[in-house]
Every structure is written in structure tokens, then in C-alpha cells.
Amino acid sequence: MSGVLNRPRDAANPLRQLTIDQLRQRTSLKWREYPADVLPLWVAEMDVPLAEPVARAITDAVARGDTGYPAGTAYPQALAEFARRRWGWDGLAVERTALVPDVMHGVVEALRLVTDPGDAVVVNCPVYPPFYEALAHADRRIVEAPLGEDLRIDFGTLEDAFLRARPGGRPAAYLLCSPHNPTGVVHSEAELTAVAGLAQRHGVRVVADEIHAPVVAEGARFVPYLSVPGAENGLSLMSASKGWNLAGLRGGLLVAGPAAAGDLTRVPVGVSIGTSHLGVIAHTAAFRDGGEWLDALLSGLDDNRRLLAALLAEHLPAVRYQPGQATCLAWLDCRALGLGDDPAAVFLDRGRVALNSGTTFGTGGGGHVRLNLATAPELITEAVRRMALAVA
Ligand SMILES: Cc1ncc(COP(=O)(O)O)c(C=O)c1O
């Protein structure tokens, strides 16, 4: 396998620049969790080199010995300009932002601002597994509002969840994943406006995790939650982490709508100062100067979504895949394969390919797997070949 996968790559596509031998040198989670005979297409790390503007910013900072605490507003400024350019949104006010160490810490901090221990938080399952762990750790009660058959928000179910979330009028929040992980669904402006209206009517505060916002397919339009009418008291978490593969250079931004500005003043100083200064430098460079690199990545991901759909149709036609319009992730319904709740275990044991088990994504995840498309097309082809062999 390694011969085929080590051939020279197309320089324009960040997903085609590294060989499998180079990737196996990596020491991060994706490439170290499993033995060397396993092809890892699981955790949302991308098999790309660091974007040049980001690498330069970090290298320059290291050369200056600029490794102290974070300061200034360059990060929110860069994000505000990115939001204006990419999403046509000019409502991101730098003074209504706070640095957070990363998105998941930011999610927990945001929920602490609007709920108390024991209060409920609504999530749309199946959803990013660490939501469950973080909410349990923060002593919040999880109320599930499963997505509809079409993988979109089911508003009847959501309203029912909002009602269950507020017994006796206690505070409650809705942790919206936008775009949605694992399905890659991009919520429309109409859907987000409906979310804001419903949340307002039921007195539920919305915290939107928008970490995947930069990673959208051609033709799709990401709408920032805080840009829709009725979302004024919302909170959002944004980051360059998913768009530019910066999980190792941590940093996020908590962004408040105009009516939530007061909440931000209660974010402890220690939370913002706990953000990595090198992370802030990296994320700033990505949002400010990484647009061209991002476009090349997005077009590579578009190709990979098409490739995966074609490969599955040919080799595993029983697997249902509705290509998402965002994220580098593919959510595969493997129930028709008859492998039970955890097909990922079968693909790993028999096929030596590592995918995320759907069972960790909450209700509705059983019988599904999540596959990470942010890799070379050759590795996706090899993964599907192995998956097909595993069930042959
Ligand atoms: C929806 C979502 N939120 C948060 C994270 C993690 O972000 P961070 O590493 O900044 O905590 C991820 C990572 O994949 C994610 O998919």
C-alpha cells in the first residue's frame, strides 16, 4: 500500500501533499491511537501541512521568544473581517468577544454564564460526543432533541425538549451545533430564525458551537447564528481550529450578541488569560491570511465527498450517505449491513480502518460510523476497500 500512497502529490490541494509515511511520523492523536496497520480516519484532525501564513506567524513568534500571555484584539478583529468577507456579516463586535482556551472550554464557560448546576441543556443528537462529557462534568442535565429522519432540526421535537428543559421555570440552554457535527448539515437562515424565535418564546438561552463554520461545501452558505433576527441574547463559539487544523495550537473566541454583552463581563479573567498566546497568533493568521489556503482545502473536501459517495455506491451500496454541506466529516448509516450497534468495531477488527463509533454520539447514533474526509483521496479509497472487505 505504501508505494501507491507515497507518490508525489498535487501541490494545490492541501489534502494531497503528505504521504502516508510522512503522516505516520506524526505524534498527534489521529495517528498514534491505533497500531500501524490501522488506517485512521476518525478524530477531526486533517492530513494537511500547516498553512504557510500560519506557519510563518508561529515561527516568527518563536524566533522573537514571543511566548508569554495573550494580549490585544487581533484575533477577534481578524475573525470580524473574515465574517464580513465570507459570510457577509458585519455584526461581530470586537468588544463583545472574549478569548477562551478552546471551543469546548468556551462552550462550558458560556453555559455557566446562562445556567446553574442542575439546569438543563438541550442538544440535537446524534451530536459531537464531548458535548455529553462536558455537560455531565459541568453538572448540567442533558435533554436530547433528536434530529429528524432528514438529519435536520425537528422543530416539534425541539419545542418538546425546551418544555422538558424548564420544569418550574428554571433556566435552560440550547447547545446548537452549527454546522452540525457529525452530519455536516448547514442550518439555513430560516431554520436559525425559527430556533431564535422558539428559544425566545420558551426563555431558553442559545449557545451556538460554530467551530466548523469556515468548512463549507461549494454552493452552501453558512449563516452565523448571531446574525439572525431574535438571536440578540445568543452566544457563539468560533475558532480557526477546524478550518486550518489547529487543535495543537489551541484558542477560541466567545462571541456575544448585543443583549448578551453583560454576560461576557462575568467570564473570569483566568479563562481568557488561559488561552495560548501562540494559539491566538496562529488563529489570527489563519482568519486574516489563510483564505486562499482554505479555498484549496474546501475544494479538496468537495472532491472527497464526491469520491466517497461514488466508492460507497460501488463497494458498499447498503451504506447510506447523505453528503453534508460542511465539516470534513461523513456520517454513514450502516444499519442495513446488519452489523449491530457498533459497525466501527467490525471495520476496525476485520478491516483495520479506524472510524468513530456512532454509539458515542447519543440517541440515534447506533449502527452509524463517522468517517473523516480530511485526507488524501487514495486513503479514502483504501479505507472503503478495507470496509468492504470487512463485511464481504
Ligand atoms: C462541534 C465541535 N466542537 C468543538 C470541538 C473541539 O474544539 P476545541 O478543540 O477547540 O475544544 C470540535 C472538534 O472536532 C467539534 O467538532
Structure description:
Helix content is 41%, strand content 13%. By secondary structure, the chain is an alpha/beta fold. The strands form three sheets. It has a seven-stranded mixed β-sheet with strand order 2-8-7-6-5-3-4, with helices on both faces. It has a four-stranded antiparallel β-sheet with strand order 9-10-13-12, with helices on one face. Strand 3, helix 7 and strand 4 form a beta-alpha-beta unit. Helix 5 runs parallel beside helix 13 and helix 14 packs parallel to helix 16. The longest helix is centred in the last third of the chain and has 25 residues. The chain is globular. The two termini are 20 Å apart. The model has no long low-confidence stretch (mean pLDDT 96). Bound molecules: pyridoxal-5'-phosphate.
First-last Cα distance: 20 Å
Order of helices and strands: HHHEHHEHEHEHEHEEHEHHHHEEHEEEH
Strand order of the largest sheet: 2-8-7-6-5-3-4
Ligand names: pyridoxal-5'-phosphate
| Unreliable residue stretches | none
Number of helices: 16
Please provide the count of β strands: 13
Strand content: 5-15%
- Specify Rg, calculated over alpha carbons: 21 Å
Shape: globular
What's the main sheet like? 7 strands, mixed
Mean pLDDT: 96
How much helical structure, as a percent, in the residues?
40-55%
Structural class of the secondary elements? alpha/beta
